[in-house]
Amino acid sequence: MRTCPRMSHIKSDFEKDIRFLTAYAERKAGTPSAKTSAKQAITLKGNMARAMSRHFARCPECG
Asked: Could you tell me the pTM of the whole model?
C-alpha cells in the first residue's frame, strides 16, 4: 500500500507520543501518574487509528 508523506507524518507523531507515555509508565511503575500515562497511551492508539482511517478515506493519494 502506497501512502503519502502526510500519512507517514501522522503515524510517526502518534507513535512518538505513545512511546513517550509508555516509557514514562514503565519508569514510574506503580504510581498514579504512571497508571494515567498508560491509560493515555491506550487512548492515543485509538485516536491514531481513527486519524489514519479518516486520512485514508479523504486523501486522493492514499485512498
From this structure: 0.85
Handedness of CA 12, 60, 49, 47 (dihedral sign): positive
Sign, CA torsion 51/49/23/36: positive
Give the integer Cα–Cα distance in Å for 10 and 48: 8
Domain map (residue ranges) of the chain: 5-58
* pLDDT per residue as tens digits for the range 17-29: 999 999 999 999 9
Q: What is the DSSP letter of 4?
A: -
14: cell is: 502518534
